[in-house]
Amino acid sequence: MQRRHFLQGFASIVSANILQPVLAVDSNETVLEFRERARRILASTPAFDLHTHPGMFALKDIPNSVNPRKYFGDAKVTSRVAEMNTGQLACGFVATVSDAPILRPPRKAGESFEGREWKPDESWQEYRRQKAVLDRIVTEHDLVKALSAKHIRNAHRSNKPAIVYDCEGADHLEGKPERLQELYADGIRVLQPLHVAENGLGDIANGPARHGGLSAIGKEVVREMNRLHMLIDMAHASEEATVQAATISTQPIISSHDLLEWRENPKRNWMAPRHARAVIETGGIIGAFPGAVNGDFETYIDNIINLIEFAGIDHVAIGTDMDGNIHPVVDDYNDYPKIASHLLARDLNDDEVAKVMGGNALRVFELVVG
Question: What CA–CA distance (Å, rounded) separates 170 from 233?
C-alpha cells in the first residue's frame, strides 16, 4: 500500500475541506479470505481497546443520579468478558466515569450536559464506589489487573484478558493534583482529565473556552501524571487543551476514541488536523472511534485508513467506547478479527495490522507506564 508523507498533498486536501473516504474495494468474500490470517495476528500481538465501559458498570447501583442511562446488567458484563476471549481482545482500558451522576442530555443545542452540581466530597466518594464495582468485576471474572506492560504480555500468553484501570474525567480530583498519588496506588494507570462536565481542569471539546485550554490546575495534573508515569488521555478535550497538554508533557499522550476531519471546529469525536498532530508529535496514538458518526462498518474502515495516512502507521490504534457508545458500528468484541481482516484486505501487511490492533498501544503504554 502506498503511503502519503505526513504533509504530502496537504494543500489539496484542505482545499476540499474534509478528508474524503477511501472507497472500499473488497467484497465480503474477499475479507473472509483474510480471517484466519487476522486471527493469527491477534494471537501473536495483544489486541487493545483504548476505551471501554463493559455493561456501563459505572452506573450499577449509582446513588443520587440524574443520568437517564442505566446499568446494562451483570449478564451484559459477563457477555462482554466472554467476547473479549472469543474476539481475541487482550487488553481493555476500562474506564470509570467521573461525572456520571450529574449528567443528562442537553435539552437544546449549546446547553451543558450537567444536570446538577456536585455536593461536597461527592465526586471523590463516587470514584471510590465505581472503583469498587470494577474491582468486583475483575475478581468475579478472573481478569488480570494490569499495572505494567509485562502484566499485559503475561496475560496474553495465558489467554486471559488484561484490564487497565482508567478514569474518564477527573472531577474526583476536586482540584487537588496530589490525589493522583492515591489513584496510582489504586492501580489507575490511565486518566482522561476532561469528559463532558466542567471540572475546572480545562476546556472540553465543543464547549465554551473558559480556560483558553488547560487551567493552571489542569497543567499541574499533566505534570503530576508525568511524574507518576500515568498515561494521559486527552479525548473529549478541546484542541487548545490538547495542544497545551502535548507541549507540557514529557511523555507520549493519547486520544483514546476519536476520528480525523479536515475542518476547523469539527463535530464531537472528530479531531481537526492541528488537534490530531499535537497527539502524534508526542509519540502518542489516536484510537479510531467506531461511533455512529461513521455511518457503517465499511466507512469506519475508511476512517481508520485515512487516520493512518495522516498520522502514520505508528500512531493509530482502536478505541471503541464499548457500551458508552451510542449506535456504534462495532458493538461486539467478536468484530476485532473482522476489523483486522478488513485492514488486510485494504493492503496493509501483517506487521501494520498488528500495530493498529495493539502493537502501538502496547509500545506507548510500556514507554509511559513501564
Answer: 11
